[in-house]
Design brief:
The protein is α+β, with helices and mostly antiparallel strands. It is built from 5 helices and 8 strands; from the N terminus they run αααββββββαβαβ. The chain has an 8-stranded mixed beta sheet.
Length: 209
Amino acid sequence: MGRTPRLSRRQFIGTSLPLLACVGASPARAAQRGLASAAPTVNPWLVDRALDALARHNGAVWSRDVIAIADFGLPSSAPRFHLIDILAGTTTSLRVAHGKGSDPDHSGSLQSFSNVEGSMATSEGAYLTDDTYVGVHGLSRRLTGLDPSDDRAEARAIVIHAAWYADPAILAQQGKLGRSDGCFAFGEQDIALVLARLGPGRLIYAGKA
């Protein structure tokens, strides 16, 4: 008896979407169910906010296999950046730094958001991932802010990048990560995963419940 051929991810998506249409399930509805079931440990309020952002920015977000939620209600010592793989039904949680302007006393917890240029703060809202480039922090990914609360992301050069102050050694020394200038800064051991999983056209929602 021959083996049943396995579908690649691209083939799976191509065959699944017509099936969803046949049973009356829209891609948005499928994403809603998939996100909720794949992220049971993520703050439900932030999951709802991410789903709302996905609906509002439906035309801009053209890849929905992976969605990221940054839970800035948690301290920087906690894995609070959630990579939610809707197709696989899994969540990978990593540590991410927040901006200096959002935590001026370096308490380890985000105190406030800001979208003001020069604030060095983290901005709340929905982001669209864009292309990669090589900058002062090595390979990085540009972001576009989709909401009024983060629409200056490009002007502020808010991106995804690696940083030494987000490495486990810093956490072990001071019990918290260092702070960025408002970027999503990851440890050098995690940046390749983040950049690979969050390719162009995907949604990141950053917030605090």
